[in-house]
Amino acid sequence: MKTWKKLGIGLALCAAVLAGCGQDAGQTTQGSGEGAAKSEKVTLTLWHNWAGQDAKAVAMRGLLDQFSADHPNIKLEIEGLPTDGLKTRLRTAAAANEMPDLFVMWPDAMTKEFVNGDLIQPINEFLDSKPEWRDNFIPNAFDGFTVDGNIYTVPMNLAPTSLVYYNEALFEQYGVKVPETWEELKTAVKTFNENGIIPIALGNKANWVAQSTIFSSLADRVTGSEWFLKAAEQNGATFEDPQFIQALEKMQELSEMNAFQEGFNSIDETQMMQLYAQGKAAMFISGGWALSNLVSTAPEEVLNTTSITVLPAIEGGLGDPKSTSGVVGTGLGINKKLEGAELEAAQELLYWMAGPEGQKATLDSSTLVSYNIELDESKAHPLFVKLYNLMQNTAITPVYDAKLGSATVEVVNNGLQELLMGGNAQEIAKRIQVAQARAVGR
């Protein structure tokens, strides 16, 4: 397992306002694709998940606006969707072979499915034409987007998916220790419940949340990553093995001890964070992406007492307790059908969003990147500095929805919703096993 310190990542956050970064992007990037800049007028369709009002979404939309202003010959027809809606829309479009020209896509399983469907095209040649850009990503950054030696995009961010955001003031007020073990977590939950504070706010209406932000790390604490990767490949392990049943039971235990507020399956991630921002919850569990939203929306008195850690260790578990599930981040896929001036324009947009200035704008929005930029802590938001420092000694483990087939992921997500409402762990495990065996053709 590699920590970010071992990878030698240089993460940074610049203090320039978004408009300034947008101007820099135009100055730096114009001329990088002279052919596209001078070609005939083209139209590109783009689907993304920067639809919210968090700092990351605002930054990305700002880059798109600046691109359009600086490239009058390239018309962008843009559609922004929430993450779960985008994933569903993309898979529907893939089934009909009606993909947009460019689209935000995820590494590993989704990338492989799109490659196997002959829906996207590699960017090796374009990437090699810009070696200074190509060689400045962190080690292994392209792995999740590489199939049979071909690279299909580059990451636009870095996404640890399971971080515990907690209110230090509430922990101090009620004499609660920040949990480092499962027993300490149970004690914390009990104490907060006794004092009318939601222990952990959860918004699992979009059913991927519990899987990606809690279960992927919790299960790894129990089973270890080696077991999970074997089960994903259906090679030497199955999802009906005892250790996976135990992981499901640990997840269910959270619900049984009332760690979450009532109605957690009926509110979304934004509403979950509002409960925390209002001081009604001591903790919430989410990915690194939540930080930019929190910075944009939470009152200062909450931000000033917020800190970040990882899920506690589970006694007897085989996983690394100093780890979080995650991926290198999303990238922009390019439709296999594009060629000529349209392809050239698409490549230029990819570089605009994921090149040096795009990476800088992402960092400006309190979002980690998979790109080497020097860190200046004096210009970073204090909460982002906490996240950066945490990640220096935190290993990354697989997230379930990146490694399993899309059909299996839906079974997992639905199964976890059922589990948290009292479902049978063994029956849910059996359904997951059947789905993944079918996904890999076994």
TrEMBL record:
The UniProt record lists the keyword Signal: yes
Highest rank taxon of the organism: Bacteria
Pfam families tied to this protein: SBP_bac_1
UniProt keyword annotation of Signal present: yes
Signal peptide positions (record): 1-19
Transmembrane segments: none
InterPro entries: Bact_solute-bd_prot1 (IPR050490), SBP (IPR006059)
Keywords: Signal
Protein name, UniProt field: ABC transporter extracellular-binding protein YurO
Source organism of the structure: Paenibacillus cisolokensis
